[in-house]
Design goal:
By secondary structure, this protein is an all-beta fold. It has one helix spanning 99-102, and strands spanning 11-13, 25-28, 39-47, 54-57, 69-72, 75-78, 83-85, 90-93, 108-111, 121-123, 125-130, 141-148, 153-155, 158-162, 167-173, 176-178, 181-186, 190-192, 201-203, 206-211, 224-228, 234-236, 239-243, 246-250. The strands form five sheets. The protein has a six-stranded parallel β-sheet, with no helix packed on it.
């Protein structure tokens, strides 16, 4: 955001140009100590999209969302609230009647016999009402024990309303997880599972409102946006913008 939006405001102003459209869903990160003050809204109108877009929301904000740059000596810290687009033209979704009540959503399980034995390329897709609580390994997007995956990636996707993580890297190397938006997902959101995973590239992802879970691992009761079990992976320019406990957790 370019300017602070007060509680009760029905508009927000962005700092960068966007190609977002009326009717699409966005998420606005919390800027308080309470990560649950992140909010989801529908775009009702948008002006000045090519410069500093002003977005009219379908209903007023419940909380203040700060946008400022703090200066300490010659150093600046960008404290502006992140805003992410949740809508995509392709939607992968759990069914509406029972998914939310049962926390039993849709999943994609990607597994094969060994190094580069498959190519999984997931891009610009919306995953919602996904992941299955109370079940190990039932994640929205799960790359499982393939080995090297030079030609596979998850890029530009949106994952929201998940009951068991967002992206899991399990026994893989050279996977790319880039430019995704995650909002309102339970447990560690980007999850490196065993500690054998190396050379994966996780960059420019935005994660908001990571929620604790009582139905996964014990550590998911104090979740992290990024759970990292091996430091020999690249985490570059990601934004951990609100969690019930941690942004990054290196558990070596």
């Amino acid at each position: 955001m370019k300017e602070t939006a007060e509680a009760g405001s029905s508009t927000i102003k962005l700092s960068v140009a966007v190609d977002w459209q009326v009717g699409e869903e966005i998420s606005i990160a919390s800027t308080s100590y309470n990560s649950r003050e992140a909010e989801q809204r529908t775009i009702k109108a948008i002006t000045d999209a090519d410069t500093h877009p002003i977005i009219t929301l379908d209903k007023p904000l419940e909380y203040k969302h700060f946008a400022g740059i703090e200066t300490y000596g010659d150093k600046e810290i960008d404290m502006r609230a992140e805003v992410g687009l949740l809508t995509r033209s392709v939607v992968y979704k759990g069914e509406d009647e029972h998914t939310v009540d049962n926390q039993y959503g849709a999943i994609i399980f990607i597994h094969s016999e060994g190094d580069d034995s498959l190519r999984a390329r997931l891009s610009y897709t919306e995953f919602t009402q996904v992941g299955q609580a109370f079940k190990v390994g039932r994640y929205p997007v799960h790359f499982h024990l393939i080995g090297t995956v030079h030609e596979s990636y998850a890029q530009g996707n949106a994952v929201h309303t998940s009951f068991n993580r967002a992206f899991t890297i399990h026994g893989n190397e050279y996977l790319r997880i880039t430019e995704n938006v995650v909002f309102n997902a339970m447990g560690h959101n980007v999850f490196i599972e065993d500690g054998i995973e190396r050379h994966n590239y996780v960059a420019r992802n935005l994660i908001m409102m990571t929620k604790r879970s009582w139905s996964l691992l014990n550590t998911d009761q104090t979740p992290a946006c990024f759970w990292i079990t091996n430091p020999n992976n690249d985490f570059i320019d990601n934004h951990a913008a609100g969690s019930d406990r941690y942004g990054y957790w290196y558990d070596l």
